[in-house]
Specification:
By secondary structure, this protein is of the alpha+beta class. It has eight helices and 15 strands. It binds 4'-deoxy-4'-aminopyridoxal-5'-phosphate. 4'-deoxy-4'-aminopyridoxal-5'-phosphate binds next to helix 6 and strand 13. InterPro entries: Aminotrans_IV, Aminotransferase-like, BCAT-like_C, BCAT-like_N, Class-IV_PLP-Dep_Aminotrnsfr.
Length: 285
């Protein structure tokens, strides 16, 4: 396997960043995870736009033209022979003697790109659907930035797994679901309306979320971007989560309450199929 680190392609097993890297010291950086479908990055313009926004918010300069980063991503994908999988990109504030303020502008940001095969849960999990566990959202107030500071997300996911759940649904102070630890949250109401929280600093603007919204609207499905409570989700007709790696994945239980009859719902299943068509179309294109 091959990884890209600061301008060179290295053996993955030996690739490393410096001990004084700001990513190591402060989690002072951002990342993207992009699906590879048929050997090509999926929805790359959306991921690049979000990456540039995250970088701008943290005042980290992309140390190469965006076009070149796209070339590196394709090259890492190709060198690892990934047909279906993910590309990971991290850009952080670079290497400098540990000190909280930004290093001088002459310090070049660190760029790491890796790729691996395999995407999301297997067919058995998809067919059965997954359980989510609710817990308080303990993250900072800028969840719109795709920061590598993921400690609350890690703790939430671990707590969910220890409770026998696939994902944590994090809940704000008013009882509304924000999102999962690495996924966006959705429900389908009794009258068939898709509901997901609007984009704001409270959640990450998922690229899968954006694509699913477009696919749903093109299908003529009713869509409402608004927050929903845990109680509303438990009483919903369907629930699901979305991300680059999980696509659209049915949520069949919330804590100990089954959602409807405890099986994946028809709208979720249809959306997942539409999304897979989108992946195949992009991969073939
Ligand atoms: N929310 C959070 C907190 C995430 O980490 C992710 C995954 N990056 C998502 C939502 C889903 O985003 P995407 O569809 O772009 O993978």
């Amino acid at each position: 396997r091959i990884a890209y680190v600061n301008g060179s392609y290295q053996l993955h097993a030996e690739a490393s960043v410096h001990v004084e890297d700001r990513g190591v010291q402060f989690s002072d950086g951002v990342y993207e995870v992009i699906a590879v479908a048929g050997g090509r990055p999926l929805d790359l313009p959306g991921h690049m736009a979000r990456l540039r926004r995250s970088l701008d918010e943290l005042r980290i300069a992309l140390p190469m033209p965006p076009r070149c980063l796209g070339v590196v991503m394709r090259e890492v994908t190709r060198r690892n022979r990934v047909r279906n999988g993910i590309v990971y990109v991290q850009i952080n504030r670079g290497v400098w003697r540990r000190d909280h303020p930004f290093p001088p502008e002459t310090v070049s940001p660190t760029v790491v790109v890796t790729a691996r095969s395999g995407l999301g849960p297997g067919p058995a999990v998809v067919e059965r659907g997954v359980r989510v566990a609710t817990l308080p959202d303990q993250r900072w107030a800028r969840r719109d930035i795709k920061s590598v500071s993921l400690l609350p997300n890690v703790m939430a996911k671990q707590a969910a797994h220890e409770a026998g759940a696939y994902e944590a649904w994090q809940v704000d102070g008013d009882g509304y679901v924000t999102e999962g630890s690495s996924t966006n949250a959705w429900i389908v109401t009794r009258d068939g309306t898709l509901v997901t929280r609007p984009v704001s600093a409270d959640i990450l603007a998922g690229i899968t979320r954006q694509t699913l919204l477009a696919l749903a609207r093109a299908e003529g499905l009713a869509v409402e971007e608004r927050a929903f409570t845990v109680e509303e989700a438990k009483a919903a007709r369907e629930a699901f989560l979305s991300s680059t790696t999980s696509l659209a994945l049915a949520v069949v239980a919330i804590d100990d309450a089954p959602v409807a009859n405890g099986a994946p719902g028809s709208i979720t299943t249809r959306l997942r199929a539409l999304y897979q068509d989108h992946m195949r179309g992009a991969g073939a294109g």
